[in-house]
Amino acid sequence: MAGSTLVLKDLHVSIEDKEILKGVNLEIKPGEFHAIMGPNGAGKSTLASAIMGHPAFEVTEGSVTLDGQDVLEMEVDERAQAGLFLAMQYPSEIPGVTNADFIRSSINAQRGEGNEIPLMQYIKKLDKTMEYLEMDLNMAQRYVNEGFSGGEKKRNEILQLMMLEPSIAILDEIDSGLDIDALKVVAKGINSMRSENFSCLMITHYQRLLNYITPDYVHVMMNGRIVKSGGPELAKRLEAEGYEWIKEELGIKDEAELNA
Amino acid sequence: MTTDTQHSLDKSYIESYSKANNEPEWFTSFRLAALEKMDTLEMPKPDKTKIDRWNFTSFKQHTVENKAYDSIDALPEEVKALLDLEGEVKNLYVQLNQTPGLLTVSEKLKEQGVIFTDIFTAVKDHPELVQKYFMTEAVKVDEHKLAAFHAALVNGGAFLYVPKNIQVEEPIQAVFVHDNADAPLINHVLIVADTNSSVTYVENYLSLNVEAEGVANIIAEVIANDGANVKFGAVDTLASGITTYVNRRGYTERDARLEWSLGLMNDGDTISENITNLYGDGSIGDTKTVVAGTGKQTENFTTAVINHGKRSEGFILKHGIAKESSTIIFNGIGKIEHGASGANAQQESRALMLSERARADANPILLIDEDDVQAGHAASVGRVDPMQLYYLQSRGIPKDEAERLIIHGFLAPVVTQLPIEGVKKQLTEVIERKIR
Ligand SMILES: Nc1ncnc2c1ncn2[C@@H]1O[C@H](COP(=O)(O)OP(=O)(O)OP(=O)(O)O)[C@@H](O)[C@H]1O
Ligand SMILES: [Mg+2]
Q: I need a labelling partner for B375 at 20 to 30 A (CA). Which of A132, B68, B106, B414 fits?
């Protein structure tokens, strides 16, 4: 795979008739790492969900394309097959389905019938990746995310990322709930994916993730729009000063005031 | 409901059948007493299902003769698939309609004094055990019409006795094959695990003739004496034309443990009752049931654990799916009797409806007559969780396949408990066939 380009143009997204995203523009080229920061409720997860095709969100305007293909026309699984991956802020639990079976089904769904991954090859890769992520190998036989701690769920998302090798990954708060050691391990996993064929959109609240994974671009999202973009230094300033200065600079009012 | 095909059910028929079957006198009398009660007894009343138009009792012919199987090789492929043929098949009973078709019991089991045989051999050879427990402790003859009908007309089954302090390591397997629609399966399994013994038993009810119409009336009684440990697994796959009444009943003495793993996969209308009476202090009953309704069938599953003993613990887990225009009803009852201090009654019932016309209902009931206890229930009826689907699809798994995985996972609690690979595989395949 030669990497992919994801382009969002004037994306508007609603949930239950409430507009959350109000025109988002973004382009992610092969090999690029982008970070999105922004206050709670700004619409970051909504953006990630809309790109992946979460059933509750409705795109009312704008476009999402992957290498020119219309992503919004695709089913969720087709989006994954086209190379998109979303590490979710709150991954689902699937009782009765083992992690190992789930990941194998995912890989095979993407490889297509008749081209399934040989079992031994799969097991080797799974073991190796779990070891790399310092995961207990028993997690493979546990049911998907069931009874996993917050941190274990996040690690499990990165395990899937590494096993599935998508061309574009969106990581929604992959750092939340991780202790320092776990954060390092997860960052190591993500960094191991770095190449000109892989790009990444990281949603985070904290600079500390970006200390381990240096982004090429940092965007600030507020009230459903990307209001400012810059390099890694922008994240550092946000960490130090918060969001007030951006609001002042851009004359943005709080949601409460807007609705008043 | 009577039809012109009704076999005449009277005293003289039962006397002659019992005689032809070489039954001892006590058993003939037992049958006749049951017959007498039959007319005065009411039908069982499964909560939320009307069964007055169902046929549970009329049939053309009471028994059919079949040839026994010469060897394991001669068994039908469908039966062989249930056996773990790689290892040596050690303890197996196969019954074809009413005929004991094949019985193998390992030397070790015989040396240990374990008895495993067809029910009528047991009636003849082990009256001291059978007479003591056959519909006396667990199921009572006069509970309702179908229990009395069963006692009067039982025409097949198996008996398992494990003596004191004996641990049976290999699972014991029974396969009840039904392929003749004319004769009803009135089958009785009696398991007695004596003090401090342990055993695992797995049974299959299997229709080889999917077109067959008829009646099945099945009772299994499990008696776990002090400190005994019994695991009971079952997979039922009777055909869509068979109307089934199945009653699996347990009775535990002090510190005994009884675990049920039931894959109730009949294609026809079914009334299932699974009750565990925890008589002994400190005894434990654990019931896991999975069901799948398809086509037009109506199924009613009552699961109850009744805590009589102090510190006794009962757990009920029921998961079911309803597809097409099927109806499944879950009645879950946790009952704690007065005096059962320190008892625990927990239940979880969940049903998924997979189509617009399917109906599912879960009724959790807690009846508590003691203060110092713990009890809880969770029940839900719904559809496949869209968030779970989304999650699986976001990894590239197409929607149909994602739904399949979720349902297999949902019905996994019983599959994972079955100790025989062949039966485990069969249940997985039946689930697969039903959800496709
Ligand atoms: N299912 C929903 N129903 C109603 N409103 C929703 C739903 N999901 C999200 N929202 C609303 O959309 C807005 C944006 O939420 P979103 O989860 O995208 O924010 P976020 O930027 O990811 O916030 P956080 O940093 O707290 O994760 C919020 O006001 C939220 O309440
Ligand atoms: Mg969020």
A: B414
